Amino acid sequence: MKEKNQVMTANRLGDGAVVYLAEDDDWVLSLDAAEIAESEEEAIRLEERAGLAMKQQKVVGPYLFAVSVTGEYVAPISQREIIRAAGPTVGTDLPETTPLR
């Protein structure tokens, strides 16, 4: 069974950041600012807009994922999206460039 509420995510082409499609066709870092598709028709429109952004080389790998909505709080349902929304899980204390030996 498909979840009713879905959000479009992708990676920003310039820096690889996890981003979410917002109502103004901007790609935002905050899941709370993402546009939420509440029907299959709205999800199809998100897919079309994400496809255009991919053709414009703004993002790569866009896809929809299920979210739960409580008031204004949006939360991913799957473990994968919980991790992606939280940010990097390793290497956050490493220098920007680590020399190879």
Automatic annotation (TrEMBL):
InterPro entries noted in UniProt: DUF2849 (IPR021270)
Coiled coil ranges: 29-56
Top-level taxon of the source organism: Bacteria
Keyword Coiled coil assigned: yes
Pfam family, one: DUF2849
Swiss-Prot/TrEMBL keywords: Coiled coil
Annotated protein name in UniProt: DUF2849 domain-containing protein
Organism listed in the record: Nisaea acidiphila
